[in-house]
Design a protein that fits this description.
Length: about 325
């Protein structure tokens, strides 16, 4: 599981603030991925009469400014996720070879963005589809159009802040079953000062996510864009430690038993072993009435199933009552 540090529009167009934010994240946190929103053509993204147009127009950075910010990330060997809101941003962003290219949920079925993305994206670059507040049809349409081999569905949405009753983990789990050939992420937007912030994030993570996203700020509690859901650097690092615990708790998913399980499952001291309840002569056939299953001090190399499968086999030597049966006691065919 990877932890994403989201910067979004928190910079409010203050390049020095953004530069410092990125440096602080890469230098002082354990973030696996740094996420940035790139908008180059605001007129393509929103109409001039939109209430946010005049607010966000002065906040745009130039290509050279974005390149400097991304260089900071690369110099620290962090992975890069770029959320791109217009076709010019997609062209520019993908030229920088990010590991992840995201389409926001508000643009999920913008055919012009999807066509541009599909045309120039590399197979190794993962597409992240924001699916918070979208229908199954919208999700299916985007997936089927892109047909990209490395796709991540990113759940979660920002309604300043998101109340946990709206997260609906049961719905998310059902969607994960419907699209079980993909990877999944959870972008948590719980209020940074909510006493349950960390718990809600971890419960979302424990639902089977490969990626967890959190807004991060160097000015916790300061009323900037996206501030309600932003957590401090120290809160982010504490979360990272618990995500690591969750990673270890999840394990690798292998159906074979690990060393701890094998130690616990020893036949004899832990699981019941097969013991003779009467003397048995050499070359006699083992029958079910000759054994009992009981916990013993001695360790057997035969499971209960092994013993059941050995009923009808001949014994190699005379054995006394109370003998813990081992594979060496049987004549091999």
């Amino acid at each position: 599981m990877k932890l994403i540090a989201e910067t979004a529009w928190h910079h409010e167009g203050d390049y020095s603030f953004m530069m410092n934010l990125v440096k602080e994240i890469v230098d002082k946190t354990n973030a696996d991925i740094i996420k940035m929103h790139i908008t180059l053509d605001l007129e393509e993204y929103m109409n001039t009469d939109h209430e946010n147009y005049k607010l966000q127009k002065p906040m745009l950075f130039s290509k050279s400014q974005w390149q400097k910010l991304i260089k900071i990330v690369r110099n620290k060997n962090k992975e890069l996720m770029l959320l791109m809101n217009d076709t010019k941003a997609i062209e520019f962003g993908l030229s920088l070879n990010p590991e992840y290219a995201e389409i926001h949920s508000v643009c999920l079925n913008d055919i012009f963005l999807l066509k541009k993305l599909k045309k120039i994206i590399k197979k190794k670059t993962k597409i992240v589809l924001g699916v918070g507040g979208t229908s199954i049809d919208e999700i299916e349409s985007a997936i089927n159009f892109l047909k990209h081999p490395n796709t991540i569905l990113m759940f979660g949405f920002q309604n300043y802040p998101t109340v946990y009753e709206d997260v609906n983990l049961n719905k998310i789990r059902r969607l994960m079953k419907l699209f079980d050939n993909l990877e999944f992420g959870y972008a948590d937007h719980t209020a940074g000062n909510n006493e349950h912030n960390e718990l809600i994030t971890l419960l979302g993570a424990a639902s089977g996510m490969e990626y967890i996203e959190k807004h991060v700020t160097t000015h916790f509690g300061q009323k900037r864009i996206d501030w309600p859901a932003a957590i401090s650097l120290s809160m982010f690092n504490k979360l990272h430690k618990k995500i690591n615990i969750l990673n270890k708790l999840n394990g690798d998913g292998s159906l074979s038993m690990n060393s701890g399980e094998l130690s616990y499952s020893k036949f004899g001291p832990m699981k019941k072993a097969a013991v003779l309840n009467s003397n048995v002569k050499k070359s006699k056939t083992l029958t079910l009435d000759k054994i009992k299953f009981i916990r013993t001090k001695e360790i057997s190399d035969m499971s209960q199933l092994d013993i059941i499968k050995s009923i009808g086999k001949k014994l190699k030597t005379d054995l006394k009552k109370g003998t813990v049966l081992m594979s060496r006691h049987f004549i091999k065919k």
